[in-house]
Structures are given as C-alpha cells and as structure tokens.
Amino acid sequence: MAVQQDVAVRAVARVNLAAIERNAARMRRELAAGANAAALCAVVKADGYGHGAIPSARAALAGGATWLAVAAAGEAAQLRAAGLDAPILVMGALSPAELDVALAAGADVVAWDEAFVAAVAARGGGAVHVKLDTGMGRLGTRDPDAATRVAQAAAATEGVRLAGAMTHFATADERGDTFFAEQLARFAAWAPALQAAHPSIVLHAANSAGTLREAASHFDMVRAGVALYGLDPFGEDAAARDLEPALELHSYVAAVKPVAPGESAGYGRRFVAATPTHTATLPIGYGDGVRRALTNNLDVLVRGVRRPLVGTVSMDNITLDVGSPPAAAVGEPAVLIGAQGEERIGVEEIAQRLATINYEVTCGLLARVPRLYHHDGEPA
Ligand SMILES: *Cc1c(COP(=O)(O)O)cnc(C)c1O
User: Fold this and answer.
1) Percent of the chain surpassing pLDDT 90
2) What is the pLDDT confidence band of residue 107, given thresholds at 50, 70 and 90?
3) Is 45 a catalytic residue?
4) How remote is the CA of residue 208 from the centroid of ligand 1, in Å?
5) Residues 6 or more apart from 331 whose CB is under 8 A from it?
6) Which residues line ligand 1 (CB under 6 A)?
7) What does the pLDDT read at residue 7?
8) Choice among 252, 267, 286, 359 that is catalytic
C-alpha cells in the first residue's frame, strides 16, 4: 500500500502556522484595546518551543505581535539572518562573547548590574532592559534600589539606551497561589516610578499565564510563548481557552505482525502477549523525541482509534497493540500528537504521562523529525 503523502517520511511534525497566527491574535485580544494597549512580544526561544523559531516568529508577527524574544544571543542572530527586523529581546544571561553576538544582531539585552551596562557600552553600545527579581530567584537583582541604579547608569551611559524594565513570574500558572500577586505588587511598586523618570521605557512582566490570568500584569507589553503554540499555559484544556494547538506529530505503520501468547515485543521483553494479537511497528522512537519513559504508557491513533503502545520505546521504533484481526495495515498513518477522525491526543496528555509540562514535550522533539509547515492544510 502506498504511504500517504503526509507520512512520506518516517515521522514528521506538521505545524499549522495559521493556528500560531490566530493564537497571537487571540492573545492580542486579551490586551486592552486602543492607544493604551499592551504590545505582544512573541517568545520563540528553543526553536519556537520545538515548532521552528523563524516560521513561528513570522506567523506571530502576522497575528499582531510586534516584538520577538529569545533566550540566547545565537537565537537572535538566527532571526536576523532570516530577515526578521522586528525588535528582539534576548532575555538570558550573556557571556561577553554572547553579548557581542546579541548586540551585532541589534537585539535588546537584559541588565541587572552596572558592570554589564559598562560592558554593553564598551562593546559598541545597545539597548538594555533592567530586570528586577520580584521572586523568580533566577536572573535580575532582588533590590529595587539597586535596579534603579542600574537603570540610571544605563540612561547616563553614552551609547547605551535604557529601553525597558521587567520582571518574571514564578507561579502565574498555578491556580490558587498568592505569590503571583506579591510579585506583581513588588514590580508595581518599582517600575512605574522608574517610567515616570524615563517615560520612553517599556514595562513588561507577564508570560502567557500571567497575561490570561491578570490584566493588571500587562503593563506596556506581555511576553507570551506557550500560548502562541496553542498549548495551555495552565496545563489544562487549550481549546477551553480558545487556543489552537499548532503542532501534530505523525508517523505511519511500517510493519504489522501476529503475536502469539508468550511472544514479546521490544528490548527487555516489557510486553509479552497474553492472548493472540498483532503489533504495528512505527518508525519513531526516542531518537525523535518520543521519550523512553512512555514505555507501555502511550496511546497512538490509527484509523481514528487509540491503540496502546506496548513494549519498550526504542531509539528508532515503537510498537502498538492493534488487536486481532489487526486494525492496522502497512502504510497507514498514525498520529502521536493531534487529531485523527473523532479522536485527539493533546500534548498535555503526554505531558501528564511523563509528569512534566507541555512545553517540555514539544521542546523535546528532536532534529531528526522534519517540521512540515502549512496554513490550515494548504502548503505554507
Ligand atoms: C520563556 C519566558 C517567557 C514566556 O513564557 P510562556 O510561559 O511560554 O508564555 C516570558 N518571559 C521569560 C523571561 C521567559 O524566560
């Protein structure tokens, strides 16, 4: 049987750029309308959470984002090399060599001490956003007065432009938590006063969860990542929040074989048939990003029906129990993430099986899986 067009390779991640565009527009609608509307900064770090940074950035900009953010200097350089000219914020810590790369890309960088501001000036100058650590405990200074001094140094240093003031929430995605409000209060007690002295700076704090949770966290800009890809920032149901998952992971049935009682499948014989059945082998494994921890713990869609993964996830293959007579034939498509017929498997479901978050599942798709871009099914 001919392999269907969408499974012309062993495994492929199909990314719907129209969904990313609509998710960006949906996040924009969350922001106040009119002249006071906060800007949307699309976070495309880690190769667009596994979706591809460059096409994802273009789609988010088409949906109304006006800024891009990444974690690493090299990621900013990649966006520039692809011709993207939107303002870019590099959010991560930068070694001196990385600072050179970020500044050469014309990206804004994040500062929390005066030595870094001096380094920006010494390395050709650029725009900085001062980071107050209101409780994330990662980057930034915890001391608002110190943050103000860094901002003043940036504003006063030749070749350096004070462009923004920011913080990052630790618990925006946690229901019923009170720490988010504490962090917001700390930022609100510091940043607007700084802006009164430096009116052109952009204040920004909220990630996707913060944006959806609390309008008071929007300030002048929000930095949304996960929601743009249609993943639920709260790990629940993306559709209920009007977000559309952009990525599907497809493979196909490469072999079907009968399994007699007592016969096994895979390394370590972690599946031994109790009754006569059939296995379908799909050419995708942990070398593609299907984590080995999903051994005997995943459903895959074939003919619109959930089929259990049985046996160990190998580097290059997995096996499904497709019953007797076999409800699968060689060449038929299989869906690991996404919809087939009436059934759907969300990234959140896989994240739950792995005791992790949806972000890590898409970030964990490896380079061996080609990304195939489309707009609602039309070639991109
Ligand atoms: C990754 C990141 C974001 C985006 O977070 P999402 O939860 O994906 O919206 C925003 N700000 C900072 C500093 C980040 O590191």
Assistant:
1) 95
2) very high
3) yes
4) 7
5) 1, 2, 3, 4, 252, 253
6) 43, 45, 91, 168, 207-209, 223-226, 233
7) 47
8) 267
Distance of alpha carbon 365 from alpha carbon 351, whole angstroms = 13
Pick the CATH number of 247-345 from 2.30.40.10, 1.10.220.10, 3.40.50.300, 2.40.37.10: 2.40.37.10
68: left (phi over 0), alpha (psi -120 to 50) or beta: beta
Helix (H, G, I), strand (E, B) or coil at 250: strand
| Pair of tokens at residue 120 | 């920006």
**What is residue 354's DSSP assignment?**
T
Instruction: Note the pLDDT of residue 1.
Output: 31
Q: Strands, E, within 17-172: which ranges?
A: 39-43, 67-70, 88-90, 108-111, 126-131, 160-166
- Quickly state the pLDDT bin for 5 (edges 50, 70, 90): very low
Residue 267 a catalytic site member: yes
pLDDT tens-digit readout, 124-159: 999 999 999 999 999 999 999 999 999 999 999 999
Is a pLDDT exceeding 90 seen at residue 4?
no
Taking the CA of residue 172 as reference, the ligand 1 atom at the shortest distance is 7
Tell me the domain boundaries of the chain. 17-231, 247-345
The helix (H) or strand (E) run that includes residue 237 is none
Residue 199 in tokens: 């009116």
The CA angle 94-184-222, to the nearest 5 degrees, is 60
Taking domain 17-231, whether its CATH number is 3.30.70.100 is answered by: no
Q: How far is the CA of 252 from the centre of ligand 1 (A)?
A: 34
Rounded Cα distance between 73 and 92, Å, is 8
Q: Residue 251 has what pLDDT?
A: 97
| Chain centre to alpha carbon of residue 156 | 36
pLDDT band, residue 3 (cuts 50/70/90): very low
